[in-house]
Amino acid sequence: MKRTAAITLNANMTPMIDVTFLLIVFFVVVSQIVDRDVISLDLPAPENPAAMVTSSEHKMVINLVPLSDGSIEKIIVGKHSVGTNEMKKLSSMISQGLASGTSEVHLRADRSTKYEHVHQVIEAVRGAGGNPRLHLVVDMEERL
User: Fold this and answer.
1) What are phi and psi of 62, to 5 degrees?
2) Which CATH number applies to 59-136: 2.60.40.1180, 3.90.1150.10, 3.30.420.270, 1.10.260.40?
């Protein structure tokens, strides 16, 4: 009786490795696109915008969280929260960001926020030094 050699089955792992690599690349790219510094605000919508869309990796986002009377409840810079009476602390946070390579500051304020509060934050950005580009964020979507 003749014995036949045992057949060994080898699974080709190359396609599975390729798919896994593509999934990793996809999630890395998507995680960079998602803006983590965005909170829900009703941004102003200009009638005739002369605006540009910026996409800077080195940006600092400042969110002004409004109260119903038009004043500010708190100021959120990245993951940190600053009180409305802590403009020097805000200015030092901006200075630290500028020292670490931030070149743009994006200011997001609700349309119901009084300008005097927005102006205080603009002055804090100016007081931080370093001359960053300040962008006022608006809603560019058409409203029906």
Assistant:
1) -115, 120
2) 3.30.420.270
